[in-house]
Amino acid sequence: MRGSRSRLELILRGELAIELHQTILDEETSRLCGVRASAMAGRILPIALATVAGISIGIATFEGEFKEQRKKRLEEEYKRYVRQIDGSTELSLTSQM
């Protein structure tokens, strides 16, 4: 009986050791994942902020030039459209005569 008890105790101790080991692993894993997540956020956040700041500075600096370019492009497109219309009306007038 005494031999079986010691074996039972060893088995139970082994199971407890496995459970304890698994608990420690779970805690370490969750701790490391938390550190990795915060480290990743710590690396991404400055890059994101620098990107947003760079874009806003670029827009503030070149906004006038962008507006001028867009206005010039629209005027050229409008003139081209008017020329196409004038050309088509001239063709229709000459064909009617």
Overall average pLDDT: 75
- Spatial extent as radius of gyration: 39 Å
Class from secondary-structure proportions: mainly alpha
Biggest sheet architecture: none
Q: What is the distance, rounded to the nearest whole angstrom, between the alpha carbons of the first and last residues?
A: 126 Å
How would the global form be characterised? rod-shaped
Please count the helical segments.
1
Order of helices and strands: H
Which regions have little confidence, pLDDT < 50, spanning 5+ residues? none
Strand content: under 5%
What share of residues is helical? over 70%
Number of strands: 0
What order do the helices and strands come in, and which of them pair?
Layout lengths: L1 H95 L1
Question: Summed up, what is this model?
Answer:
This protein is mainly alpha-helical and 97 residues long. The protein contains one helix and no strands.
